[in-house]
Design a protein that fits this description.
By secondary structure, the protein is mainly alpha-helical. It has a domain of 43 residues. Helix content is 77%, strand content 0%. The chain has 2 helices and no strands. The longest helix has 38 residues. It is elongated and about 60 Å long. The protein starts with a helix and ends with a helix.
Length: 66
């Protein structure tokens, strides 16, 4: 593989990493906002209706294998 192509692919990975970090930060902000609303309304802090970790992991695995 030539150096230019490798450099291009590495830059692309850096861009993707930046997008992932931005999305994680946005998600964390929303989690905190949900927590604040739940505390102010005396709602349970656990939400069993939302996606759980195992369903998220399954979705990621499915996307990777596609």
């Amino acid at each position: 593989m030539d150096t230019k192509k490798l450099d291009h692919l590495r830059r692309k990975l850096d861009e993707i990493d930046g997008q992932i970090i931005t999305l994680i930060a946005e998600r964390q902000f929303n989690v905190e906002q949900i927590g604040n609303v739940k505390l102010s309304t005396n709602s349970p802090t656990r939400d069993y209706q939302g996606k759980n970790k195992s369903s998220i992991k399954s979705e990621i695995t499915r996307l990777i294998r596609a």
